[in-house]
Amino acid sequence: MVPSIAIIDANVLEAAGLKYILNDIVPKVTVSTFKSVADLQQAMQAGEQFVHFFASTQAVVEDSAFFQAHARQTIVLTAQSANGNKLLGHFRCPSSPNGSWGARRCVAAPREPPRARNYRPRY
């Protein structure tokens, strides 16, 4: 059986980009994208099984019960640290003060690349 990963994100471009990256890093994994948790649950009722769920913050907030039930498999994609976010408090980020990933993971996406001090864009 080939392991499967689910990406739940209403933003189609973000989901497609993450799918491309995951397929490049782990080519022997099937990656499926879903616009909502309802679509994911339909696939699961049809018999699909997933080893991990990459979910947008919006998806986690909209159906927190599902992701809490699958917390060990869930990776939350955020634009900032979830340490201060009460809605995502049960997920830990790799940048947490104790430095441990724990059983649940919250992956913070980078904001912007750092710029050199004297960098001035040329137009």
Secondary-structure blueprint:
Elements: E1 4-8, H1 12-25, E2 30-34, H2 37-45, E3 52-56, H3 57-62, H4 64-69, E4 74-78, E5 105-108
Parallel strand pairs: 1-2, 1-3, 3-4, 4-5
Q: Give the end-to-end Cα distance, rounded to a whole number of Å.
A: 52 Å
Classified by CATH, the class is Alpha Beta
Give, in spatial order, the strands making up the sheet with the most strands: 2-1-3-4-5
Class based on secondary structure composition and strand pairing? alpha/beta
Main sheet makeup: 5 strands, parallel
What number of domains?
A: 1
Tally of extended strands?
Answer: 5
Average pLDDT confidence is 76
CATH topology: Rossmann fold
Provide the low-confidence segments as ranges: 92-105, 107-113
Helical coverage, percent range = 25-40%
Q: Superfamily at the CATH H level?
A: Response regulator
Description:
- The chain has a 5-stranded parallel beta sheet.
- By secondary structure, it is of the alpha/beta class.
- It has one domain: Response regulator (Rossmann fold, 3-Layer(aba) Sandwich), CATH 3.40.50.2300.
- About 17% of the residues have low confidence.
- It contains 4 helices and 5 strands; from the N terminus they run βαβαβααββ.
Descriptive keywords:
123 residues, single chain, Rossmann fold, 4 helices, globular, 5-stranded parallel β-sheet
Short overview:
The chain has one domain: Response regulator (Rossmann fold), CATH 3.40.50.2300. The protein contains four helices and five strands; from the N terminus they run βαβαβααββ.
